[in-house]
# Entry
Amino acid sequence: MTAQLVALGIFVAVFAIAAARNVNIGIVLFPVAALVGLWIADLSLEEVVAGFPLSILVLLVGVTYFFGIAHSNGTIDWLIETSLARVGDRDAALPTTFFALTALVSAMGAPLGGLVMAPMGMSVAHRRGIDPMLMALSMGCGLSAGAFAPTSLFGIITWGTADAAGIALSPLLLFAVAVVINLVLLAVAHVLFGRGRRRAEAPRLERAMVARGAALPEYGQSSLSLDDDAPAEVRSPGRATPHQVLTLVLMVALVVAVVVMALGGLEPDIGVIGFGLGALLALVDPAAGKAAMSRIDWGSVLLVGGIITYVGVLTQMGVIDLIGERAAHVGAPVVAALLLCAAAGLISAFASTTGMLAALVPLALPLIADGGIPGWAMICAIGVCASIVDVSPFSTVGATYVATTVDPDARPRMTSLLTRWGLSMVVVGPVALTLTLILPGMVLS
# Structure
């Protein structure tokens, strides 16, 4: 047991040090996994390296490359501008619109890609008199919802890890749970911060700058154009180019293929499909294909790869089984599940959500096997609990929303409210998901 505890202590220490130093945790953990495997676990180097998740690598690279082309050829921008143009000056629909748009972008490979909506969303909120907190939470909930799509990072990692462990979890069910939970949170945000909207007329100079398409100070270029007397109007995006039309068709084809195959009981390899569709687009538009290479999420590949490789060493040493035995002594399995979900939320509020998913999903396996908790419910709960806290200003997502709040005087309020919201989710998320997913799942199983 001493060797097991030492290996687990090294894992926690290296994870914390790398996070504190803002270094990719996976890059640090991979060589440490080799050292622990060779010197403590008495494994061969081949056995250690065999734990690297090649299937998840294919998923991440294939999906992020395909959607990288969609970004590079302007298809994503065209979709956003078209959607905003259809909303027009219906202020009440703007927070929900930005929820949907952020979810759409987040579902396209990299969840943090949804942050491209932040400057635009916070600028629109300022001009239309919408509470910036409502807009930030709308986009934050959208980012969390889209992140668990079968085509996005959180969904790929959560479902891929569960699938590798033999847990029956539909990627569409995982996505549906995330969408429903975040829609509920969006409704709560509307109740708390949606009152007292007012029409806010932009200063004449700023409106003139936007009308000319000039870059606004600090917040980048806006897609809004205003005249002196009218409220904010969104510029017409024009017609899609042939390359953009083809990209849209293939995006729909990818989604349809995943849904149809999943409903048919098959396990679609989304990464391979993404590679195929990306290759087709690259042949049609080589420039966009080349530009998309820089959009492949290598950082996440290395992060997840290093963490899962180390977890593989821990598994072979029996550490995961040991944790399961200790969890059984907590009392009721549902209490252990609640604590695990709370740990996922608390740590994720200050550290990498991707890292939390890669580390905690395997740690939940003994609880699933011995505690009578349905695997699909436990994995969904961990994933969503780790994600809904991301609006905390201590994370990349929350910090971005504070930084893009237009009125500097409003930023301290945003920091305070986002802190309260994020930390409240550490409690609310686990309790809500335990009551709505885990307990009913245990009764029905």
Summary: The two ends are 34 Å apart (CA to CA). Residues 198-233 have pLDDT under 50 and may be disordered. The beta strands are 215-216, 220-221, 224-225, 233-234.
